[in-house]
Design a protein that fits this description.
Strands 1, 2, 3, 21, 22 and 23 form a 6-stranded antiparallel sheet that branches. The longest helix has 7 residues. Strand 13 and strand 14 form a beta hairpin. The chain is globular and about 50 Å long. Helix content is 2%, strand content 45%. The protein has one domain: Neuraminidase, CATH 2.120.10. It is mainly beta.
Length: 332
């Protein structure tokens, strides 16, 4: 993705950024699970702060592990009582967090299948740049979108094997480092695939709407567009209970650091050439606790819409893997 090198090399230069080495990064002997959670406040300058735009902060944690494969979270979903997350180096992370913010189970693995180099050589990090994740709760199956390969792999509920994959022709011209960035499975079985930098209609980024499972034969996808706010780019999207999309958008500059905009997008008109554009509900900038936010998941609790965000630390010790929890006040 376009920020990978910039963030990894320059982020420590950003004045006023909250991207600092967290406590507990070293080896620990008191961790009962593979992933450890350390609580953080929303705003260190105002620890009592809770509301930011249409979001209310419920809690946040820095996630760490002694396992060097942990990190790079780029997408996640909620499954049963916990999280399933993927990383841009092919990592697979499954963990649960209780109401007290304590990890109750965790496992770290590698995706069992995915793109391989064209020359047949050893699989490297860049080959398994997983950026999108979708889940069908009825069958338990998962779909993973790989950005550089601009293709999909379908996995069983345990991620033990992949039974199908495809690299659609409609995605061939997407930039290898700006391709499939977010994937959403709609309730009727259609799939929306958002490119990070592929050209769409007008000044938008291209979005493809598949009539069904993108790894199965079917009609060509409809070509739409998504216009992110300002200079921000989409990093993930998730379906809300009312049928709209919640979209995570991120930007980075050396002067201002990381900026995150959360917007809601209507899906009323999904026809060829439509440009989707969201209503901004919250903007998170330093000194608010943020990082390279890339993953988004939605939950419902007692009639409330709960928003989870996670960050990609780029495997950089100067960044953090954050897991943040908010209530979406806009849907009250």
């Amino acid at each position: 993705m376009f920020l990978r090198i910039v963030v990894s090399c320059l982020i420590f230069l950003v004045a006023g950024s909250t991207l600092v080495i967290s406590e507990g990064q070293g080896e620990r002997t008191d961790r009962p699970f593979a992933i450890y959670a350390e609580p953080v406040v929303l705003d260190s300058g105002d620890p009592a702060r809770r509301d930011i735009g249409g979001l209310r902060y419920l809690g946040g944690w820095v996630l760490t592990s002694d396992n060097l494969d942990f990190g790079g979270i780029s997408a996640m979903v909620l499954d049963d009582d916990g999280f399933v997350a993927i990383g841009d180096a092919g990592g697979l992370f499954r963990f649960a967090l209780n109401d007290e913010g304590v990890i109750t189970r965790a496992a770290i693995a590698q995706l069992s299948a995915g793109p391989i180099p064209d020359d047949g050589g050893d699989v490297e990090k860049r080959d398994r740049d997983a950026e999108g994740l979708a889940h069908d709760p009825d069958t338990g199956r998962y779909w993973v979108a790989f950005e550089r390969a601009n293709g999909f792999w379908r996995f069983d509920s345990a991620f033990e094997r992949s039974d199908a994959d495809a690299a659609p022709e409609a995605m061939e011209d997407w930039p290898s480092n700006g391709g499939a960035e977010a994937m959403v499975r709609l309730d009727d079985g259609r799939f929306l695939i958002f490119s990070e930098a592929g050209d769409g209609p007008g000044d938008s980024r291209e979005v493809l709407l598949f009539a069904g499972d993108p790894v199965e034969d079917g009609p060509p996808p409809l070509r739409l567009g998504y216009r992110p706010p300002g200079e921000h780019r989409i990093t993930d999207a998730a379906l809300l209970p009312d049928g709209r999309l919640l979209v995570l958008n991120r930007d980075f500059s050396i002067v201002e650091g990381v900026s995150v905009i959360v917007s809601i997008v209507s899906l009323d008109a999904l026809t060829a050439g439509t440009i989707l554009e969201g209503e901004i509900i919250a903007r998170l900038d330093p000194p608010v606790t943020i990082d390279n936010m890339e993953a988004l998941a939605i939950d419902e609790q007692d009639g409330r819409t709960i928003v989870w965000m996670a960050s990609d630390d780029n495997f950089n010790p100067l960044q953090r893997t954050l897991l943040l929890q908010f209530e979406l006040l806009a849907l009250r």
